[in-house]
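A favour, since you know our structure tokens better than I do. What I am after is a single protein written out in full by you. Could you add the entry underneath, on a fresh line?


***
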Amino acid sequence: MKPKIYIDGSEGTTGLRIFERLGGRTDIELLTIAPALRKDAAERARLINASDITFLCLPDAAAREAVSLVENDHTRIIDASTAHRTAEGWAYGFPELSPAIREAIVTGKRIANPGCHATGFISIARPLVDTGVVAPDAVLSCFSLTGYSGGGKKMIAQYEDVSRDAALDSPRLYGLTQQHKHLAEMRVISGLQKAPLFTPIVADYYAGMLVSVPLDASQLHGVSTLAQLHDCLSSAYADARLVRVLPLSAQSDAGGFLAANACAGWDGLELFVTGNDERMTVCARFDNLGKGASGAAVQSMNLMLGCDEATGLNV
């Protein structure tokens, strides 16, 4: 019997992208809700409990409410909201971070899908903290450039409005109060004691993300050169299929520029190690709607079902 999959919130950006990745698959059965009943709690509860795996593509409060609708011990949840990313009993949906995290996804019933900005930062910081290269009490900085699709339907409509405000022509900083909703998971999942100083930036392109973490040599332990930092990250992801550390020459091969939209439509993540032996920058580049959202959610589902983790993904 094919596993039954339901997407609660399938009309949102993340839900639609998950549906696109699953729509052509013959190894699963997609449960769908009638448009008129999308907000009907009883019908949603019926479909959630009829499913083997439900994706929650909802605001935080609605995601918590949806979890409370589960009335059996077999329905497994993948929550794309912020609600459960640091909650006890929830596995974090980034299997490349460690064998233990991968196993928790494979066997878990409650999976929290990572945030897009958090995915980039954690992909850099977690292996450095795990190996002792960066101390847990380090205060790191993080800059994250994203396409406007990360803001959901409302922001997409603003940017694609022909009579839009001229301010949207320029990259815009936000999260200026240093209270961005991804900061909790950026700290906890990375193993840091303090959240990074975080500057998210949205720019006038649809999809793609470039997250950068600058590092001074004085912050590093057991690593004294750019090549050694590169070796550390390459070792951490040596067996990863969807995360790849590019050669040190990659930046110069690209003409000295890194375009944030270069991975749009792809479900993997690239890491770049740039700079020199005194001042270094590690960058993560990926699709905010791919490895930063829907692609990561489908990867977790694949692991939960015991099939190839890249099934249905663009890799």
User: Anything to note?
Assistant: The chain has a mean pLDDT of 96. The radius of gyration is 19 Å. The chain has ten helices and 13 strands.
